[in-house]
Amino acid sequence: MRITYDIDGVIIPLIETICRKHGIDFNKITEYSISKCDRLTKKEKNLIYREFTNVEIFRAAGVYDGALDINEIAQRNDVFIDSNNVVQDIAFYKAELINRIIPSIKDIKLSISTSGKDFKETDIVVEDCVANLLDNIQVYRAGILITRPWNTSFNERDHSKIIRVNSLVEANSIIKSITYKE
Q1: Rounded to whole angstroms, how far apart are CA atoms 168 and 16?
Q2: How many CB atoms lie within 10 A of CB 1?
Q3: 125: which strand partners?
Q4: Given this model, what pLDDT does residue 112 score?
Q5: Which band of pLDDT confidence, cut at 50, 70 and 90, is reported for residue 136?
Q6: Nearest C-alpha neighbor of 84 from the set 39, 115, 119
Q7: Three-state DSSP state, 107
Q8: More confident position, 86 or 134
Q9: Rounded to an integer, what distance in angstroms lies between the CA atom of residue 74 and that of residue 76?
């Protein structure tokens, strides 16, 4: 089975780390697009944007609980990583991190882009961005949405293929229950 994970907001707690560093209330980020977050001040938005190009904030972020468990899933399935990046240094860091913590990984797609994603030929997608799941809903068997402040208003009950979870640990548990049956 083919499983695709996003990185930021799924494996790496990037926004939480930025918010903690700058004293920004994480729960003010109610839109995936920072520019559309009316609860953030212009100064806060600029601080967040600046950090998106700072490889050191990615290093400082560490990983969510459950990130290391992806290696076990990758030993039994084709696991892919798909993540957009603002600058090349961050893409290099993410590749190094993923290869270190998930040595059984099948492939890493790290685009230098801020546009959407294309999950062709994948069975399960783990994301924090509703638009990425909805744009590819015809492609995958199950989309797992990890709850973050920017996706809480989305009603997953309107979409039978999307499963909402509260953590990467919970997402991995669902993946194991699906893939270990087959």
Answers
A1: 15
A2: 16
A3: 4, 143
A4: 47
A5: confident
A6: 115
A7: strand
A8: 134
A9: 5
